[in-house]
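Students often ask why inverse folding is considered easier than folding. One informal answer: many sequences map to the same fold, so there is more than one right answer. In these notes we will look at a single instance of the problem. The structure comes first.
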């Protein structure tokens, strides 16, 4: 039986729905008839005293027709949702309104709610009476709660609506953890048990849907804790099996965790760093915060932290000449290739795949350069090459290196490594400002056209190497004008046996 366990003040709903939207909804409701409900997350958030970002509406049938009329009346954009669902989205004046019909053959709103994923999302309140009498002092809107979601909200508990909730749409396996992370709720024991029994079903879900849920989890500030819970349930290994190879794999004594736990700890440390970069990079917080300002950058950096040592299991070796020391030679490059395969499987965009892959592949460079700096032999050329290789990901690489260092607390770790990383970043920042940026912003001393017209070289891969060498030499001060650039180009062409074309 439907229970009105709680209610929402009319004023809350009127604040949520602008007058122009209420007027349009009332007109569509008058045309179409039937009941109109606020439902799902919007009701949950109103009950929690939070302002929902989107508006979810439910009607008995004809949701796409409803949405089409609403889009027309509000001059909004209409976006169908799902191929097999009677649902659509209207975007108008910066407001997102999702409208869906009763799902899976439900005949009433109660049946519809009981077919939803989680009890805290199985809430609704009837809206059309308020549209007819839009007064702040109107009677409160009773909350329809057939699955006990109101009680679970009070308890801070994530619970599925029924025994078949997860199997009816296995994506809900991930949504259990996503909503636990977003809301800061615990997962009910029986729900966790169901996830453990049915976790394999997630492999039937479209990769794009899996990737979207994983990104939403990674976008929270408790991604590491959430992934740890997913691993304990076994679900994580069904969606990211590559990480499982690191379970129990020992590392050198500079580390205190196995490969899997180290990857997870690096993500945990990254969450700390992202929250307050200035605490880890004193006097550099402005640059780090600017790099992290874009949510997409933060998300990809967290993925890089989780996957930075993905290649270690495949490259693990023992140096018998060093007393059986554990090694992971080239794990950065191998890990980048493995990550590319993972991202392809999840249907990531090329841009996202390449950005995270570059971070994974380059995550050891700050440490290698720090080792050189520790001996006092870091040259200007070496610093410039690091900057050229890092490109616009320099801050990302150092943020990743900081997380990696903090995650390795073994007995033989290098003391003061984090301080060395900060000082190295400061040094590279100065080199970038004094040597790299001025050259990058100035017209080039030599172009491909010059190589063709003045040296009569045939176009090819050599052009790229020559132009890069000229740019680097200009940054180091070894070349200062076009004549010097041309001399360097001639020398390189001669060394590589390039044969000039005979001018016609």
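Output (designed amino acids):
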């Amino acid at each position: 039986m439907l229970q009105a366990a709680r209610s929402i003040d009319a004023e809350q709903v009127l604040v949520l729905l602008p007058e122009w939207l209420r007027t349009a909804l009332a007109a569509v409701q008058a045309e179409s008839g039937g009941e109109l409900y606020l439902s799902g997350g919007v009701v949950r958030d109103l009950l929690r005293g939070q302002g929902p970002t989107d508006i979810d509406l439910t009607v008995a049938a004809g949701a796409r027709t409803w949405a089409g009329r609403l889009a027309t009346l509000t001059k909004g954009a209409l976006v169908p949702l799902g191929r097999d669902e009677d649902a659509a989205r209207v975007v108008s004046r910066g407001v997102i309104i999702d409208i869906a019909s009763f799902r899976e053959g439900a005949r009433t709103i109660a049946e519809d709610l009981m077919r939803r994923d989680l009890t805290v999302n199985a809430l609704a309140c009837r809206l059309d009476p308020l549209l007819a009498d839009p007064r702040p002092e109107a009677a409160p809107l009773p909350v329809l709660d057939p699955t006990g979601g109101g009680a679970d909200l009070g308890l801070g508990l994530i619970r599925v609506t029924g025994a078949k909730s997860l199997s009816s749409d296995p994506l809900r396996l991930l949504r259990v953890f996503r909503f636990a992370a977003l809301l800061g709720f615990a997962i009910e024991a029986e729900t966790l048990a169901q996830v453990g029994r049915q976790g394999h079903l997630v492999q039937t879900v479209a990769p794009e849907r899996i990737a979207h849920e994983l990104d939403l989890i990674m976008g929270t500030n408790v991604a590491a804790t959430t992934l740890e819970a997913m691993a304990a349930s076994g679900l994580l290994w069904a969606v990211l099996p590559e990480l499982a190879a690191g379970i129990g794999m020992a590392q050198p004594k500079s580390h205190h965790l196995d490969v899997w736990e180290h990857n997870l700890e690096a993500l945990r440390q990254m969450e700390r760093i992202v929250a307050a970069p200035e605490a880890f990079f004193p006097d550099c917080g402005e640059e780090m915060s600017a790099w992290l300002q874009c949510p997409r950058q933060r998300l990809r950096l967290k993925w890089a932290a989780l996957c930075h040592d993905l290649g270690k299991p495949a490259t693990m070796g023992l140096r018998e000449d060093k007393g059986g020391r554990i090694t992971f030679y080239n794990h950065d490059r191998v890990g980048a290739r493995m990550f590319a395969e993972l991202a392809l499987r999840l249907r990531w965009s090329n841009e996202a795949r390449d950005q995270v892959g570059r971070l994974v592949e380059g995550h050891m460079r700050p440490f290698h350069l720090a080792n050189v700096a520790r001996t006092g032999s870091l040259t200007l050329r070496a610093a410039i090459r690091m900057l050229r290789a890092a490109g616009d990901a320099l801050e990302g690489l150092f943020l990743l290196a900081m997380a990696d260092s903090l995650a390795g607390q073994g007995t033989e770790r290098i003391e003061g490594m984090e301080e060395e990383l900060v000082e190295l970043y400061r040094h590279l920042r100065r080199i970038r400002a004094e040597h790299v940026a001025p050259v990058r912003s100035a017209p080039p001393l030599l172009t491909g056209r010059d190589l063709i017209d003045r040296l009569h070289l045939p176009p090819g891969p050599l052009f790229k190497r020559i132009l890069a060498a000229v740019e680097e030499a200009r940054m180091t001060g070894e070349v200062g004008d076009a004549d010097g650039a041309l001399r360097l180009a001639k020398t390189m062409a001669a060394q590589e046996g390039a044969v000039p074309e005979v001018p016609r």
